[in-house]
Amino acid sequence: MKFKNEDYVHFHCHSHFSNFDAVDSPEKMFLHARKEGFSALAVTDHGNIQAWPSALKYSKATKDNKGNDIPYPPIKAILGCEFYLARRMDVGQHREKRDPAESKRLQPDGQRGNRHINLFAMNFCGYQNICRLSQKSFIDGFYFKPRIDIELLSQHSEGVMISSACLSNIINQNLLYGKYDKAKEICGIFNEISSGNFFLEIMYHGIPEEKIIIPDILRLSTELNIPIVCSNDSHYVFKNQAPAQELLLCMSQQKCIKDPNRLRFSHHEFYLKSAEDMGRIFGDIPHALTNSVALAERIDTANIESNLFGVGMRLPSFKCPEKYKNPFDYLTHLAQQGMKRVGWDLSKKHRTALKKELEDIRIAYVNNGYDFATYFLIVRDYILYAKDNDILVGPGRGSGYGSVLLRCLDITYGVDPLEHGMLFERFLGFDNSRFIKESDFGFDQGLKQLIINKETNRELEDDLGGVDRYS
């Protein structure tokens, strides 16, 4: 059976963010995958998620980093991470917690050291959970490597797909030491933690141990009804880059390339193989290739992107007093109070400036969903907290200092910004016409639509009353 690249998805790929262990940038990986006609590509760096922004960008970018057009169709970016799994992430981290007896039984397979596990974000909830796991692995679990444990994983597993990863996975290690029942038990745990979104990886790079455990992995898949996917532990895009990756490994160990005791990959097979290459190895298990496409379809990258980039601003929630309909109404009320407190309520130019600033905020929200009202209320909240608790706060900086509104909110203090011709617009980084999407209207149409919006949306009253159309 001949496989096309569209029939297969790589679920185990390292970029140069796998420090001293992989060669290529996410940009090069995704552009190559797009060129070769893959429908999706995962990035699974060791212990970190630093490649994710680049993966999302270059999975669909129309220009490369040199400004050249990219002629290849977009593909789905699968955001993953190959985490280091400890039996207990606190053991060994702090000297006072080190227990020699415990350290000898760090893993259920009876061997010491960390194990590997691949986690993938299926949606935005999964994205957030893997971010939490990554943060905790560095802050709470770091001991030579950023580590998590099964207990922590179970607490942050919603929206997360799990795979058994490479030969260093806890399941594969149990199989190597003849502990099939233990491997089966752990498969069940991972399958339960992931709510059925667990799959087994099989690999063969010429390493004898990989070949030995493949029959047992197939048996686990059949007995537990767990999908199986063949994967290639990719550390470089092209096969001829293997010597470069060896040099990186030498650097990580501080050893010479001629040192017979250095860590090395015994075969030059850790590249981004084509589906045809994978078919030559696993062609007698065709579902191990086609399952990768089915599992990739469970990944809702669009949900991740819409939550990251499809909203004007991502902000914490801010609870306003009940009598105010929305954050803008509350902001307007505070502005009224502030004008009287500062003594600018009798100044026409200050009233005009404040009215314009509030109108800019309103238009930004109505047209594009930029919630500057909530943003300013949050900033005011922590600025006032700092002042109430004798924490040093500056008078403000840059164009933010030019805002009449921020002065009325007690966020800034000092000289009158209007006396020095300071501009509030530069702080928001826009004029109103920029808040019309040029993809929806031509430039001239955009200006016309802005005029229509201003005419149909109720103008602010002189007394700075609330705006019903804010929400």
Question: How do the strands and helices of this protein lay out in sequence?
Answer:
Blueprint: H1 26-35, E1 40-46, H2 52-58, E2 76-85, H3 100-103, E3 115-121, H4 124-139, E4 147-148, H5 150-155, E5 160-163, H6 170-176, H7 180-193, E6 198-202, H8 208-224, E7 228-230, H9 242-253, H10 275-282, H11 287-297, H12 301-309, H13 327-342, H14 348-368, H15 372-388, H16 404-408, H17 425-428, H18 443-456
Parallel strand pairs: 1-2, 2-4, 5-6, 6-7
Antiparallel strand pairs: 2-3, 3-5
Helix pairs in contact: 1-2, 6-7, 13-14
Biggest sheet architecture? 7 strands, mixed
- Residue stretches low in confidence (pLDDT < 50, at least 5 long) are 430-471
Order of helices and strands: HEHEHEHEHEHHEHEHHHHHHHHHH
Approximately how much beta-strand content do the residues carry? Answer: 5-15%
The CATH class of the largest domain is identified as Alpha Beta
Taking the alpha carbons of the first and last residues, their distance comes to: 57 Å
| Mean pLDDT score | 86
Total number of domains: 2
E-strand count? 7
What name is given to the CATH topology of the largest domain? TIM Barrel
CATH homologous superfamily descriptor of the largest domain:
Metal-dependent hydrolases
Number of helices, counting only DSSP H or I runs of 4 residues or more: 18
Output the radius of gyration.
28 Å
| Helical/strand content category | alpha/beta
CATH architecture of the largest domain: Alpha-Beta Barrel
Percent helix:
40-55%
- Gross morphology is elongated
